[in-house]
Design goal:
Elements: H1 2-21, E1 24-31, E2 36-43, H2 51-66, E3 72-75
Parallel strand pairs: 2-3
Antiparallel strand pairs: 1-2
Length: 89
Amino acid sequence: MKDLKEKIEHSLEELRPFLRGDGGDISLVEVTDDLRVLVELHGACSNCSMSMMTMKAGVEEAIRSVAPEVKSVEAINLPDPETATPFGK
């Protein structure tokens, strides 16, 4: 499990410059025994209406490319699309 976490952390590290460029960040919270990856979005990413697309097209894809055995990638703090602001502003 340690190797898996290291691979996931490395994939997130490669995404961080893009997220930070938009005023956000991401952290790995947990890899569960049933291979669910839980992450937390920070800064602008935590309340941006685009965060769901960021999760699917960016984060999930990056993690699955290094760890195809992962069953799901979930943000523990995704905003409600009804109240999220465009681009976290």
